[in-house]
Amino acid sequence: MSARFLPVGPRCLLVELADLDATLALFDALLADPLPGVAEVVPAARTLMITTGPGVAADAALAGAILARQPAPGTPPAPRSTETVEIPVTYDGEDLRDVAEHMGLTTDQVIAAHQDVLWQVAFCGFAPGFAYMTCDDARFDLPRRPAPRTRIPAGSVALAGRFCGVYPQETPGGWQLIGRTEVPMFDLTRNPSALLRPGVRARFVEGAAKVYAMATPAAAMTPTGLAIVQSPFPMLVQDAGRMGQAGQGVSASGALDLGALRRANRAVGNPSDDPALEITLGPVRLRADCAMTLALAGAGQAVVIHPQGRTTIDPGAAFALDAGDQVQIDPPARGMRSYLAMRGGFDVAPVLGSASTDTLAHIGPPALTTGDAVAPANRPTAAITPPASAPDLPMADQVVELPVTLGPRTDWFHPKMVERFLAQDWQVTAQSSRVGIRLAGEALTRDAGELPSEGTATGAIQIPHSGQPLLFLADHPLTGGYPVIATVQPQALDLAGQIPPGARIRFVADAPFAPITPEGQP
Q1: Which CATH number do you get for residue 95?
Q2: Does 387 reside within a domain?
Q3: Per the domain annotation, does 219 fall within a domain?
Q4: Whether 361 and 493 share a structural domain
Q5: Is there a domain that residue 306 lies in?
Q6: Ramachandran area for residue 126 (φ above 0: left; ψ -120 to 50: alpha; else beta)
């Protein structure tokens, strides 16, 4: 098949190709001769998700330029790496017998076949360090389990859809488990952190890995700075996100309401994308152990408690604290997330180029709870700016309209299901998180076919087997295996990150779904 171009958003599209080899061959071509304005390319089993930079549209012109780079049919992928790693495995997986039945082999023959082939990483996704490895033995083209497990232990070696993978951390999953390894797939003390990266080859051998004990650092003293006196939910450090780590299976993360993050930083004279504290709901109480200047933007309102009494701070305005002063943030009437910036910044160490805490990948500074504190960094600052205007935030009893682009997999659903998706109000459930907003409503149905794993954008609305949508937010997995019926447009992502449980969402599409016709094509 020729390449098919599917819309994701104004700056993102999905290129669908015939198979993995064709996908990797086009990926190689785009790496060798990059297109101007393309910010990131995420390869998957049969697709490339292509995201452009600001001011560059993911449109027919871009599709035409990509098509012009497409190699001739049958072009093999370029040799990707000379590195081969050996992974010891204990073959005791719960699905080993089922895999043997699928393959028409004994369990010993499955183990021998798994060790005989050379596995090569095609792409990474799902979780940091999770590598999709493929081989030339067609017998390993196996289905996923009928129902995914809610918990798969870290180190599990698994098979599905002609891929082999090793789960780097405990997570839900639907692949067939054949064994386990103690070799860490993702380790921030390594450079690069991911053991298996695109192009790296792996051989599996039977046996237990030799694990070396790591030195345990001495317990750190609680820093002097801003202390957390009370917080019902963990506070997270967030900045503008962790870009450019797709090759290790790491998504961007970052503040859910980037506009509020930037307003808080500008109010105290920081660079707009500096790390700040992301505060969920409330009530929250903080104590200054030294003099400092703060600003709060987003859903909450700050009240300073000092020896002279209480002072209510204008939303988004900078305010000064002396040592011993406290800040109180009550549960907001609108929205659900606030951003607290400190003049000169917080003293937090970046991880993979960002200080954002990714709750799915467990990357970034640890969450802050009652009794913790964070110190000032005292970095150079600019002039403090007046409070910037802020958008209205939703209440728990409101219906919030979110604009969407239909795609990339809208055509996996009958037109009546697409109409149902757009016509009803979807309830935001309490099971929502930074990974995504779980919605409840009249379920959507589709054909039972399986979708090969492909890249997912922030704002993607995935429809799992339950038929209840999941709207991906900043900490979503880089790839997913359920069809995405629509994608929230980028200008509405800040609003989506502020929608509280109990509110309802209505999705609004300004155009019907249609694949993108490359410029110059009939």
Answers
A1: 2.40.100.10
A2: no
A3: no
A4: no
A5: yes
A6: left
Domain assignment of residue 388, yes or no = no
| pTM for the predicted model, two decimal places | 0.90
For residues 248 and 276, membership in a common domain is answered with: yes
The residue written with tokens 């105290």 in the block is 268
User: How far is 55 from 490, CA to CA, in rounded Å?
Assistant: 13
Residues 98 and 65 in one domain: no
Distances (CA, A) of 259 to 109, 298, 492, 503: 57, 8, 11, 21
Q: Would you state the structure tokens that stand for residue 445, as one six-digit string?
A: 């149905």
Pick the closest to residue 457 from 5, 1, 3, 10 (CA basis): 10
Domain extent at residue 11: 4-69
> Could you tell me if 342 and 418 lie in one domain?
no
Q: What is the pLDDT along the chain (522 residues), one digit of tens a residue?
A: 689 999 999 999 999 999 999 999 999 999 999 999 999 999 999 999 999 999 999 999 999 999 999 998 888 887 666 689 999 999 999 999 999 999 999 999 999 999 999 999 988 988 889 999 999 999 999 998 887 888 999 999 999 988 999 999 998 888 999 999 999 999 988 888 999 988 899 999 998 766 545 444 455 566 889 999 999 999 999 999 998 888 788 889 999 999 999 999 999 999 999 999 999 999 999 999 999 999 999 999 999 999 999 999 999 999 999 999 999 999 999 999 999 999 999 999 999 999 999 998 889 999 999 999 999 999 999 999 999 899 999 999 999 999 999 999 999 999 999 999 999 999 999 999 999 999 999 999 997 677 888 999 999 999 988 999 999 999 998 888 899 999 999 999 999 999 999 999 999 999 999 999 999 876
Assess contact for 412 and 382: CB atoms under 8 A: no
What residue has token string 């001495």? Answer: 218
- The number of distinct structural domains making up the chain is 4
The residue from 357, 374, 391 where one domain ends is 374
Closest CA to 495 of 298, 295, 200, 278: 298
Strands 176-180 and 156-160: antiparallel
In this structure, the answer to whether residues 291 and 253 fall within a common structural domain is: yes
Q: What is the H or E stretch that residue 166 is in? A: strand 163-166
Given a contact cutoff of 8 angstroms between Cβ atoms, the answer to whether 8 and 454 are in contact is no
Q: Are residues 485 and 414 in the same domain?
A: yes
- Amino acid letter, residue 360: L
End-of-domain residue from the set 374, 408, 431: 374
CA nearest neighbour of 127 among 155, 149, 87, 99? 155
Q: What stretches of 212-364 show up as alpha helix (H) in DSSP?
A: 258-267
